[in-house]
Write a structure and sequence with these properties.
The chain is an alpha+beta fold and about 190 residues long. It folds into two domains: about 30 residues; about 160 residues, PEBP-like (Phosphatidylethanolamine-binding Protein), CATH 3.90.280. It contains two helices and nine strands; from the N terminus they run H-E-E-E-E-E-E-E-E-H-E. The longest helix has 27 residues.
Length: about 190
């Protein structure tokens, strides 16, 4: 074999290995909500309606602040709230933008949550590692219109989970503790 063929084979092998690693990491991110829950929590927002367009203010092309989430008929057994926000149309599959847990029980998750691992203004809620940051990262699709789903979980406990945890650790930690689940999906188009 010539040196060119050997080099091409080595390059293809390296691409294959890195591709497999990337796909494996994406699969870890694409955890389905395996709680076998139906949506029994109504989630709305003042910022946008179900299936509606998310205003630029709440995106990576605007102020990049989190929208408020209103919750109806929360269980009296609730001890905390968790939120997972994902891009459902990312080229790599479902892509996590935001994880936050140990939010005090309330009929509203306020908008404009501050950045950082611990949110003191929200009773010590914890923002884990979503999109490589400890903060809300709003929609910023590379092209086209993407759907962004805010999954809200009402839990019967607070979670003892490191702030360096991501979506997969949060999902694992919530198992057996979800009292209610609801979601709100909005769209944003790259302009």
């Amino acid at each position: 074999m010539s040196k060119k063929i050997i080099i091409v084979c080595i390059c293809l092998a390296v691409i294959f290995i890195f591709g497999a690693i990337i796909i494996q990491n994406i699969k870890k991110q694409n955890i389905k909500n395996d709680y076998s829950l139906t949506e029994n929590l109504k989630v709305t927002s003042d910022a946008f309606t179900e299936g509606g367009m998310i205003p630029t203010k709440f995106t990576g092309r605007g102020e990049d602040i989190s929208p408020n989430l209103k919750l109806a008929e929360i269980s009296p057994d609730a001890k905390s709230i968790a939120v997972i926000m994902d891009d459902h149309d990312h080229p790599l599959g479902i892509y996590n933008h935001w994880v936050i847990w140990n939010i005090p029980v309330s009929n509203e998750v306020p908008g404009g949550i501050s950045h950082g691992k611990i949110v003191n203004s929200l009773g010590g809620a914890v923002q884990g590692n979503g999109y490589g940051r400890h903060k809300y990262r709003g929609p910023k699709p590379p092209y086209g219109t993407h759907r962004y789903k805010f999954n809200v979980y009402v839990l019967d406990t607070t979670l003892d989970l490191s702030s360096d945890s991501g979506k997969s650790e949060l999902v694992q930690s919530m198992k057996g503790h979800v009292l209610q689940y609801g979601s709100l999906t909005g769209k944003y188009e790259n302009q």
